[in-house]
Design brief:
mainly alpha, 52% helix, single chain
């Protein structure tokens, strides 16, 4: 390999940093396009605005997404990188998986849409909100954080493979206890349920 002078090496490092920055910007744009909801509410929609929905925009067009993919392909091809060919036996990435990866990547928690919660968590959440509204000042925690076995949930088992989620296990258990979510609900909680608990 040719030994580069300091000036040439600095120039090469600068070009590589620019390339990495360009690729990262385009991958972020593509990820954001894929994560935007498929059916945004109309002008007269009745969806309740919250932290998750208020900043959503119309889904990026298929044409724009394809253009971003072509630009990424050209950049990688110019660097001599060959495309990975997907194994047809590999299962498709679910919406939960995409959000899980995205959340682990940028660390920005969003409150999920009401339709994303599991039935058991949604029911428990609704009951607790009603109890809080009727509270006469005697509201108290009913459960201990030790009552919550997060590993009973297949969703948490998948989340715990990410160090960012696994390291917050006890915080999630404390928050569940604070919210008075019955421990038996945990086994059927999905990623979006845990996402709200972590958001709170």
């Amino acid at each position: 390999m040719e030994k580069l002078s300091k000036a040439k090496l600095d120039k090469r490092c600068s070009l590589e940093r620019q390339l990495v920055a360009a690729l990262r910007d385009k991958l972020d744009a593509l990820a954001n396009a894929q994560l935007k909801e498929d059916n945004p509410p109309g002008k007269n929609g009745n969806r309740e605005a919250n932290e998750y929905t208020k900043n959503q925009h119309k889904k990026t067009s298929r044409h724009s997404s394809e253009q971003i993919k072509k630009e990424i392909h050209l950049l990688l091809t110019a660097c001599g990188v060959t495309a990975h060919i997907d194994n047809p036996q590999t299962p498709l990435t679910t919406r939960e998986d995409k959000w899980m990866i995205h959340l682990d990547w940028d660390g920005q928690f969003r409150r999920p849409d009401d339709t994303d919660y599991s039935a058991s968590y949604a029911n428990a959440r609704h009951t607790i909100l009603e109890q809080q509204n009727l509270d006469d000042g005697s509201w108290e925690a009913l459960y201990n954080f030790k009552d919550y076995d997060l590993d009973a949930s297949p969703a948490w088992q998948k989340m715990s493979k990410f160090q960012s989620f696994a390291s917050s296990k006890n915080k999630v258990r404390y928050q569940l206890a604070k919210m008075n979510i019955p421990p038996n609900v945990v086994a059927s909680m999905n990623f979006f349920d845990f996402s709200e608990v972590m958001y709170l």
